[in-house]
Specification:
With 68 residues, this protein is α+β, with helices and mostly antiparallel strands. The protein has helices spanning 3-15, 34-64, and strands at 19-24, 27-32.
Length: 68
């Protein structure tokens, strides 16, 4: 990936508030912002994960003969 492409992608991530940047002289350091990523997880991923885990739990109980 070219440097210009990477810089453009980092700019998009920064505009979306998924990363934060700190300038130190000529350097520009990038850090992941976990808050919006967690919000995406809670809003979209978590609901699908719960159903999948419940199905796996039920399958485990069925295979082991456990009727709890």
């Amino acid at each position: 990936m070219a440097r210009q492409s990477a810089t453009q992608h980092l700019g998009i991530l920064e505009d979306a508030n998924l990363i934060s940047t700190v300038r130190r002289g000529r350097e520009k350091l990038h850090f992941i912002n976990p808050v919006p990523l967690h919000e995406v997880y809670v809003r979209w991923v978590h609901k699908f994960e719960q159903q999948r885990l419940a199905l796996l739990h039920d399958l485990k109980n069925e295979l082991e003969g456990d009727k709890n």
